[in-house]
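Lab meeting, item 3. Inverse folding demo.
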């Protein structure tokens, strides 16, 4: 540790989110970010650790149960309500915390995924004040600090930690299980509703594919070799697929609605499930709809940027691609017109086109990210 003796190396048993830094990170950067997190998000508990072999520094981030309850209220986390208060799912409220199931049990009220979502929400919405800077990075007012530092490479990774106890249980009941139903409720509790819904659909789809597979095999077995029998079987199999696809979609609607009701997302608008975009910048104001503080960016400014910047740049990129493609085609015709050239040279225009496509793809990806960040504030 030597000159970095201010960093404590006490064991950290409770950690929900880990933030790592490159081994070249200096003390000023660590102290600057640590100070901003502790002042901007006082709900978080941050411990600084240093790995003696990799020489990498990391922030071990967690929060107290009371702070997580306030965070659940802030993001509108939906939790099950006790039967005597009506049951079902409802957005968490600290004022009525007594109505929620397991509220008295700190260990089981929040799943690890819910804890990590609350902490990640706080971290991604830590925003800079006017004129703040770190070395050569100058933040705009209201700009999210941690996503910007991660994009600049100052922060190496920000990721949630797994719970080995739950992973081992899932390994036995899910990964290693043969001919058993998926533990969808456990998957939902650990990975979240989106992941659980995906595997629910995947399992349902896999099971539903048995019917066309069996019916198609039977048709193939009993089909005669003449063309008429094959045509009839194709028509029959096509009709079967149409009926099967219709029944599959209708049944999945019912099954998906059951899961959504069970997991508390049936009557939840999509915008409340998705977290606010942390890169959004604007002026702070009180929302006329929710009366909560929010960032607001005038629509006319966004439209002006799209018309004067986004559209011309997109048209210029399309024109460049079109001209480069025509140039490669002309080069191809020129090369093919010369019979004396070696055979390998005839592939040169195609190689040039492949290199151009790859280079343009990387360039246009960066342009697209920049336009998205600038024009969709």
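The presenter then showed the designed sequence:
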């Amino acid at each position: 540790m030597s000159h970095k003796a201010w960093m404590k190396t006490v064991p950290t048993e409770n950690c929900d989110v880990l933030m790592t830094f490159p081994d070249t990170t200096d003390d000023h950067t660590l102290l600057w970010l640590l100070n901003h997190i502790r002042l901007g998000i006082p709900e978080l508990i941050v411990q600084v650790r240093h790995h003696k072999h990799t020489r990498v520094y990391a922030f071990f981030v967690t929060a107290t149960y009371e702070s997580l309850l306030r965070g659940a209220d802030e993001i509108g986390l939906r939790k099950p309500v006790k039967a005597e208060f009506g049951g079902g799912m409802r957005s968490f409220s600290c004022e009525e915390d007594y109505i929620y199931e397991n509220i008295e049990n700190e260990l089981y009220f929040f799943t690890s995924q819910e804890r990590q979502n609350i902490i990640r929400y706080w971290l991604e919405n830590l925003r800079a004040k006017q004129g703040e800077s770190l070395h050569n990075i100058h933040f705009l007012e209201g700009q999210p600090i941690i996503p910007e530092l991660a994009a600049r490479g100052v922060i190496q990774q920000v990721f949630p930690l797994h719970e080995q106890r739950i992973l081992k249980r899932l390994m036995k009941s899910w990964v290693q299980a043969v001919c058993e139903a998926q533990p969808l409720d456990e998957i939902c509790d650990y990975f979240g509703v989106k992941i659980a819904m995906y595997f629910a659909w995947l399992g349902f789809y896999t099971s539903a594919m048995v019917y066309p597979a069996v019916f198609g095999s039977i048709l193939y077995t009993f089909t005669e070799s003449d063309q008429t029998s094959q045509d009839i079987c194709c028509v029959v199999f096509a009709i079967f697929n149409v009926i099967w696809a219709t029944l599959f979609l209708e049944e999945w609607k019912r099954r998906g609605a059951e899961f959504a009701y069970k997991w508390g997302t049936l009557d939840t608008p999509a915008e409340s499930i998705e977290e606010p975009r942390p890169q959004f910048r604007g002026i702070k104001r009180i929302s006329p709809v929710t009366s909560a503080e929010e960032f607001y960016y005038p629509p006319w400014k966004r439209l002006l940027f799209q018309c004067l910047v986004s559209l011309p740049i997109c048209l210029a990129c399309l024109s460049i691609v079109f001209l480069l493609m025509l140039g490669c085609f002309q080069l191809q015709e020129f090369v093919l017109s010369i019979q004396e050239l070696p055979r390998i040279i005839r592939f040169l225009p195609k190689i040039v086109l492949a290199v151009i496509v790859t280079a343009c793809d990387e360039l246009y990806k960066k342009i697209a990210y920049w336009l998205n960040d600038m024009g969709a504030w």
